[in-house]
Structures are given as C-alpha cells and as structure tokens.
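In the lab's daily routine, each protein ends up as an entry in a very long ledger. A line of letters takes care of the sequence, but it says nothing directly about the fold. The three-dimensional part falls to structure tokens, numbers that each stand for a local backbone shape. The outcome of that step, for a single protein, is printed below.
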Amino acid sequence: MKGVFYAYEQTMKHIANESKTFKGNAVNRDDYKITIEKPNGQFIGSWNKQLYNLIETPETIPYVQLKQNPNMWDN
C-alpha cells in the first residue's frame, strides 16, 4: 500500500505543477485508514473472484478509506 500512496502523491504533484486549472493538495497518509479482510473460498486465479469473496484464500484484501468519512470515495 505504501507504493500506491507514493504513486498517488507523485501523480498529484505532477498534475498540480503542470495544470493551469487544477491545484490539488498533497496526499496526507494520516488522513487514511488501511484495513484488510480475509476473503472466503480457495483462490483459483482470478482477483475479481477473490475480491468479491466467491472463493477462500489465505491472502487478504486491503481497503483504504478516508478516516473522516470512511463511506465516501476519495474523489
């Protein structure tokens, strides 16, 4: 997940520097909560099947939510 935040930070920084209209703020990792969930079923090769809990697997699925409003997507 750290790599995802790093890429998002760099993308937003580039857009803010290059865009004449968009001036976004830096991403603050402390504003986000990361949780993981262990899916049900055995993994058979499809991330979508794992994501929608159709199969069991020992792997976990990470979820990232804004701490201030966890039910809202960051758009």
